[in-house]
Amino acid sequence: MSSLSHQIEWSTLARASAGTDVLGHHLPPWWSHVLDQLRQEPFAFKYAWLVGHLNATYTGHVKFTVTRAGILEESLQVLSQLPRHQLCSFTSIALRGEVALDAGGVAREWYTLLSNAILDTSNGLFMVSNKDDQSFFINPNSERDHGPNHLADFQAIGRLLGKAIIDEQVLPFHFCVPLFKMLLGYPISIEDIRYLDPTVYSSLTYIRDCDDV
């Protein structure tokens, strides 16, 4: 397992620093007041505010060149090695051997192809947690099914999610509720099991609520 793999861990909200940005810069005190007001607004307003702020803040571009055949391995490697100061740059994509001007279409295709490869269960990174809504959860056997660099690749996927926000790309998949709660540092309860295995959830709640068990 690479040294990068040992640096990844879940952090609770209490341990996470909300006073710095992704580059490690300290945020000014007035940011807390702005965010406190923003949290009262509807989602559409929050999203419009975020997009406007990103467009006004980030103007640089970072260019990736990958092949279609190796889009998963090559893209995750590039994302893993991307310097921190380029994480908040807009993304420009070139597919090796193909002539195309990336006016947005190539980047959209790259996000779609890479997302499909990441979620392909044969690659061992994610699993379908609920067939009804086709939501995904981390494969608990990812080290066995994907390989010893699975944690480094999960970190690269996290960077992909962040870049998708900056690039205003809608990714073609949904994470299940428990995974979102883990990412946000919210506690997991027995009620969250319903999103992972409805049958197990029903059995557990029956045992919990039945006095005769």
Structural class: alpha/beta
Helix content: 40-55%
Major β-sheet annotation? 3 strands, mixed
At the fourth CATH level, what is the homologous superfamily of the largest domain? Hect, E3 ligase catalytic domains
Subunit arrangement of the protein: single chain
- E-strand count: 5
Number of distinct helices: 8
Number of domains: 3
| Second-tier CATH architecture of the largest domain | Alpha-Beta Complex
Q: Please mark out the parts with pLDDT under 50 across 5 or more consecutive residues, or reply none.
A: 1-10
- Beta fraction of the residues? 5-15%
Fold-level CATH name of the largest domain: Hect, E3 ligase catalytic domain fold
How far apart are the termini? 45 Å
The pLDDT mean sits at 83
Topology as a string of helices (H) and strands (E): HHEHEHEEHHEHH
Radius of gyration: 20 Å
Q: Which class of the largest domain in CATH terms?
A: Alpha Beta
Query: What overall form do the CA principal axes indicate?
Result: globular
Organism: Aphanomyces astaci
EC number: 2.3.2.26
Keywords: Transferase, Ubl conjugation pathway
Catalytic activity: S-ubiquitinyl-[E2 ubiquitin-conjugating enzyme]-L-cysteine + [acceptor protein]-L-lysine = [E2 ubiquitin-conjugating enzyme]-L-cysteine + N(6)-ubiquitinyl-[acceptor protein]-L-lysine
